[in-house]
Fold this protein.
Amino acid sequence: MLFAPGNQPRRSHKALTLGADAVALDLEDACPLSEKVAARGMVIEALMLPRVCLGYVRINSLETEFAFGDIQAVVRPGIDGLMLTKVESAEQLRQVNWLIGQIERERGMPVGQFDLIPLVETAKGFAQIFQIAAACPRVRRLAVGSGDLTYDLGLEQTIGEEEIFYYRNLAVHASRAAGIDAPIDVAWLRVNDSAGYAQAVDRTRRHGFQGRLCIHPNQIELANAAMRPSDEVVEQARRIDEAFRQAEEQGLAAIQVDGLLIDYPIAYRARRVLSLIDRIDTLETPREL
């Protein structure tokens, strides 16, 4: 998911063409106070253009004077959802869910279709993350923010991200417990450190996230490459799936494939890889607005 400043139309329009699976046009941190209201119209105009990616808007925190107007402006056909910043309770999400529902009815939109992504990025938010993940059906995935979190906790941000492992793991755990999609991992601030970013996205994949927040276009290709299962992994998953299905027909639930002992958890993992590659291939197919 690539962020782009909502108050800069050229950058917003370009972001939607760069190959990210989703783009979040930003009305929060990347948008100065003096332009937050005017930028609402700019992000709507950008997201009404033809695109092949999902289109979101990151709105301002509910604690600000801008959030209500942001929601009223961006909930409309053609926009996939909004990202709500600094979420700290399930009650906040239920309030926003109710408001979005009223706007959907008023504007003739299918009720419940508009997506809501909570960005959890404070100590209070992580203290309530299990409730946040299960707050309402409109919440289909979480996102984790590191900049505000490390500031809130007084942590030093390191290249290995060790200081936030605990909080990232909480997001994965809470998402699974709530039965929603895997979360989206934190942004990588060292935009010129490609090697470090590749390692960071490899951690993202291994630690159970579905993707990464991107703050620069040069991060997209690296993220896509690191998150996509390799051809070798996919082919092995196909061999495991085929062999295990045949074994089940013969009344067996433990076999060997490529010298590995395969039982149900390993077979399910292989099927998850195959499902993921199908989803990636679908995302890479142009979508009609």
Q: What stands out?
A: The beta strands are 2-5, 22-26, 54-59, 81-84, 115-120, 143-144, 184-185, 211-212, 255-257, 260-262. The first strand starts at residue 2 and ends at 5. The CA atoms of residues 86 and 121 lie 6 Å apart.
